[in-house]
Every structure is written in structure tokens, then in C-alpha cells.
Amino acid sequence: MLKEYVIQNWALMLVSLAFLVSLRTTSFLDKTFANRMSLLILEVLILSIVVFVEFFQENHGVVWIDRRILMTIRYSATPFIDARVLYTLIKKLRRAIFIPAILLSILCVINIFTGIISRVLEDGTVQRGPLGLLPYIVPGLYGTNLVYVLYRRSNKQPIELIPIAYFSLTLGSGVILPFLLGSVYSQIFCETISIALFTYYLFSILNLTKKDSLTGVLNRQACYADLETSAENITALVSLDMNGLKRINDTRGHAAGDDALVTLAICFVKAAKARQSVYRIGGDEFLIICQRTPESDVLQLIDRIRKNVAETEYTCAIGYSYSENGAKSITEMLKESDEMMYTEKAKYYQAAGIDRRRR
After folding, report:
1. Which residues neighbour 221 within 8 Å (Cβ) at sequence distance 6 or greater?
2. Residues with Cβ < 8 Å from 327, sequence gap 6 or more?
């Protein structure tokens, strides 16, 4: 049995080993992300053992009524793994994301005694019950949510959209292929997830040269490069600066300050649409480059940012500069945008009665 498992899962084992080594040797990775991803890989490996044992019995003509216990584990583990992928890849996601997976697991346990999802007949065949589609619907919803959130929080650039599209294809196959291949797909599910995660990880590593490690938005170097190479397409610049970061760092600690910056970055990225890229260019300074964007869309962008930030405990100052038909240089636009932002920032501190020289 062990020999057959190794033969069937050799590719999965190799990819998983390479993944674990990469996670442990890439020093600049966030430790929480690395730990969550490592645990996720181990969970996929454990699931592969459960799946192998289940289908080993079937392939060797063993009629094992208690196979339903292994089916329960498989049905429950799949949405849990999808939820873990979401929880690992997306920052500041609440643990409530696991609730659908937990509910499905409860139903799977009930299924052992009732067969509401599936039942094993005396000849060893599996018959789908009235809730038989749930083990496919729930992972499908997780996959859709993952792709949607990754897209919403991306900078809408090809280097980020390509791995998201790949993930979409991979997770989509988990919904469609079971109906085309039947139970055989369960035997390649673990490989599919593992390879998808590893591929996404490789894209992420390549993308880190352009990403700010804390917030996940594009970094200063990417900003300067895009300002230079895309100058003819840039119609607007939006400057953003967090209010009160120093006070948070001094009173609540730098971890709280980092959390505030991540929260605001998410607000900015959620507000941005196509051709609107978010960059962190300083400690609490951000810039949004808008390409071929009319001024009305820029104002709508700023309005969305204000609404998103208003839902948090933080505030920020915003300024913008618009150039119609390239009338202004990038330098002029940066100056105008910053001046508007600093004017708004000064009004905030004045209204709050805060002496910035002490804060």
C-alpha cells in the first residue's frame, strides 16, 4: 500500500517538499504567512493519504461500509482547505470565513448516520443523497470568493492578474471536473491545490520586487518606474497621507501603526479600479496613479476612498492633480497633488487641536 501511495502521489510529495523548503528559506517572507502556508501544505498531504486509503479499498474490490467515515473526512476537508487558502493569502480576513466549512462538516458527520449527502451501498458503490451537491457547492463558493477578493485587493496590473486567473482556472476545475471525471477527480484534487498554491507563491515572489512588504501595494521603486515609463498616459495623481500615525506608534506601539497602514492600504486598493494603481511611497504616504482616467472618475475614486476610510478608526488627508491632454508635467502634478493633501492635513490637525510638533 505504501509503495502505491508513493507512486500515485510522488509529484505531490515533490512539490510539497519544494514548497516547504522555499517557505523556510525565504527570509523576507512574513512569518505568519509562512507558518499558515506550511500548515496548509501538511493538511493537503494528510488529505491525500485519506483519499488514497479510500480509493485503494475501492480499486481492490474491498466492500467497506465504513468507507463513509473516510468520505466524511474528504468532504469536510475540501472546503476547510479552501477556507485555509483564503485565510492564508488574504490579510485581515476574519475567522468567520470558516463558518460554511464548519457547517458542512457537521452535515457530513450527520451523513454517516442518515446518508443525506451520500451513502455507501452493500456492493461498495456510492449513491448521492438529497444534499449530494453540497460538497461541491461550498468549495465552489470559497473559490469564487477567493478570486473575487484577490482581484479587488490587487493593483489591477498584469503581474498580479495572471496568477489570479490561474487560480480561477484551478479552483474552477474543482467544481466542473468532478462531474466530468467522477470520483477520479478526488484523487488528483490534492495535487491540483498544491501545484496551484506553489505557482501562486512563485508569482508572488517575483512580484515582491514591486510590492511593499507591509501593505501589499506597489512600492516606491515601482512608482518611480511607472511615472517615467507611463508618463504620456497619466491623467491624474492622487496623494494620500495618514493622519496621526506617529501618535499611534508612540501610544499603542509600532505593531498598531503597521496594522493601521495595512487597513488604509486595503481601503485604497478596494476603491481603485482599472488603470488606477496604488503605491506606498513613504512611511504613511501613498500615491495613486490614474492612467487615461477622466476627472469625474478621479473624483469618484476619492469619494470611494473617503467612504472606505470612514468605516475604520483612522483618517487620512487626500489631494489630487488632474492634467487634461498632458498639459502638466509629472513634477507639476506631484507638487499640486501634495500641496492639496498637506492643506487638508493641516486643517485636520487644526480642527483636532493637535500640535504636530509634539505629535
Report:
1. 209, 210
2. none
Q: Rounded to the nearest 5°, which phi and psi values hold at 318?
A: -130, 140
Query: Of 177, 223, 213, whose CA–CA distance to 330 is shortest?
Result: 223
Q: What is the DSSP string of 208-221?
A: TTTB-TTT-SB-HH
C-beta of residue 233 within 8 angstroms of C-beta of residue 292: yes
For 32-42, b where at least 16 C-beta lie within 10 A, e where not — what string? eebebbbebbe
Q: Quick one: DSSP state of residue 324?
A: G
Closest by CA to 211, choosing from 153, 256, 260, is 153
- The x, y and z cell numbers of residue 66, run together, are 465504513
Between CA 87 and CA 95 the distance in angstroms is 8
pTM score: 0.60
220-352: CATH class: alpha beta
Blockwise average pLDDT, block size 10, the chain, 359 residues: 85 89 78 84 88 76 68 84 82 83 91 86 77 86 84 72 81 74 73 81 76 88 90 94 91 92 94 92 94 94 96 95 87 95 89 62
